[in-house]
């Protein structure tokens, strides 16, 4: 994983942190699920000792969510969603178009967001867990 690519993701997650309409839905128990069956994180947060949302996102992407993050990075559709979202700001219809144009990346992208915001950083990034 290149530094520039990781930096773009970190910036994207920070931008998403300011947007209440993140991708996806959590399971009924509130824990992230993936259809790909790769890495689900149903345990408690191991990044909960961080103090800021930015620090927690960095911890999550480099630790507990790294497998999901790597899966997304390996998917051209998931990365296309990442790049597309960067130009959307808080425009929900733009984000819907990003998902529609890259349907094979949506579940991986959602899984990363759920891992970061629902499981690893629910307090530090309050209100950002996809509903």
Task: Explain how this protein is built.
The chain is mostly helical. The protein has one domain (3-120). It has six helices and no strands. It has helices at 3-17, 53-62, 66-73, 76-86, 92-101, 106-120. The longest helix is centred in the first third of the chain and has 15 residues, at 3-17. It is globular, with a radius of gyration of 13 Å. 37% of the residues are buried. Mean pLDDT is 74; it is low at 1-8 and 10-43.
- Overall pLDDT level: 74
Please work out how many helical segments DSSP would assign.
Answer: 6
Strand content: under 5%
Structural class assignment: mainly alpha
The shape is globular
Low-confidence stretches: 1-8, 10-43
Give helix and strand order, one letter per element, not per position. Answer: HHHHHH
- Mind describing the biggest β-sheet? none
Could you tell me the number of beta strands? 0
Compute the CA-based radius of gyration: 13 Å
Kindly report how far apart the N and C termini lie: 29 Å
What level of helicity do the residues show?
40-55%
Number of domains: 1
């Amino acid at each position: 994983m290149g530094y520039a690519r990781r930096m773009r993701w970190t910036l994207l997650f920070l931008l998403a942190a300011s947007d209440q309409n993140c991708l996806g839905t959590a399971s009924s128990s509130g824990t992230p699920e993936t259809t790909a069956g790769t890495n689900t994180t149903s345990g408690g947060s191991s990044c909960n000792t961080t103090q800021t949302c930015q620090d927690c996102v960095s911890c999550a992407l480099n630790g507990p969510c790294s497998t999901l993050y790597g899966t997304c990075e390996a998917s051209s559709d998931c990365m296309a969603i990442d790049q597309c979202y960067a130009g959307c700001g808080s425009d929900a219809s733009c984000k819907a178009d990003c998902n529609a144009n890259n349907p094979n990346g949506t579940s991986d992208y959602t899984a990363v967001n759920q891992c970061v915001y629902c499981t690893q950083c629910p307090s530090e990034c309050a209100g950002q867990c996809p509903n």
